[in-house]
């Protein structure tokens, strides 16, 4: 069991993480991410941020072989942490989108992506044709003050029938309202026959908490969830 609390995090790390989660206006938030890009990987390492690893492991588990030819879209790709984990599991055809040019520059330097595009999710559609991807991942960006849960149909649009969607959110107190909204939206799409839930895995030690209030039962960590959905192979006939 991990020891220590987020209170042991360097104050500067705590402040940077808190700033991007504060739900500031979009231009300001993108500016914060641009400024954070250079230190982002060090900061998330200090946070013991496990979402990229957990998401990639879950997707690989659900995904039928072979992986090398499968086309994946890494949404809100940041500096490429998720791509690194996917690459280690045999996925080779990765595209990424992010709202921050600074983050994309870092992602480009990894050499793991075939194509990287600037896209502010929730404001503009994904720069991809319908049914292009075998899997779509959104790791870490579905949260209060970040990407709205209204983007789900857009994620589905670019996924092939029978393709997979891997989404994550946090379960810390300040994100619970968002999480409830997200789960309601996920459920509605399932009822409409758009996709099927394969996995909803609650993970206790998601990352270190940045404050005592956010920590789960005084562990110093916050918990999170990985969801895996499969887009239904046939369109719902009722929609016509």
TrEMBL record:
User: Domain of life of the organism in this record?
Assistant: Eukaryota
Q: Where in this chain does the record put each Methyltransferase domain?
A: 73-163
Q: Where are the transmembrane segments?
A: none
CDD domains given for it? AdoMet_MTases
Pfam families per UniProt: Methyltransf_25
What name does UniProt use for this protein?
MET27 protein
List the taxonomic lineage: Eukaryota, Metazoa, Chordata, Craniata, Vertebrata
By which gene is this protein encoded?
A: Mettl27
């Amino acid at each position: 069991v991990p020891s220590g609390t987020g209170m042991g995090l360097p104050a500067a790390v705590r402040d940077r993480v808190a700033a991007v989660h504060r739900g500031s206006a979009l231009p300001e938030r993108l500016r914060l991410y641009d400024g954070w890009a250079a230190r982002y990987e060090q900061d998330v390492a200090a946070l013991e941020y496990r979402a990229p690893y957990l998401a990639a492991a879950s997707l690989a588990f659900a995904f039928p072989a072979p992986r090398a030819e499968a086309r994946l879209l890494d949404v809100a790709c940041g500096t490429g942490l998720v791509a690194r984990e996917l690459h280690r599991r045999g996925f080779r055809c990765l595209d990424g989108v992010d709202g921050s040019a600074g983050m994309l520059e870092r992602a480009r330097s990894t050499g793991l992506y075939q194509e990287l595009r600037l896209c502010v999710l929730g404001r503009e559609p994904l720069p991809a044709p319908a049914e292009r991807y075998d899997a779509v991942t959104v790791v870490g960006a579905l949260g209060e003050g970040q990407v709205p849960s209204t983007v789900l149909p857009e994620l589905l649009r670019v996924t092939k029938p029978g393709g997979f969607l891997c989404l994550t959110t946090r379960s810390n107190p300040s994100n619970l309202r968002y999480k409830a909204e997200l789960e309601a939206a996920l459920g509605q799409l399932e009822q409409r026959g758009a996709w099927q839930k394969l996995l909803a895995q609650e993970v206790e030690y998601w990352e270190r908490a940045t404050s005592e209030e956010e920590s789960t039962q005084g562990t110093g960590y916050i918990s999170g969830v990985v969801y895996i959905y499969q887009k239904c192979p046939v369109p719902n006939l009722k929609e016509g």
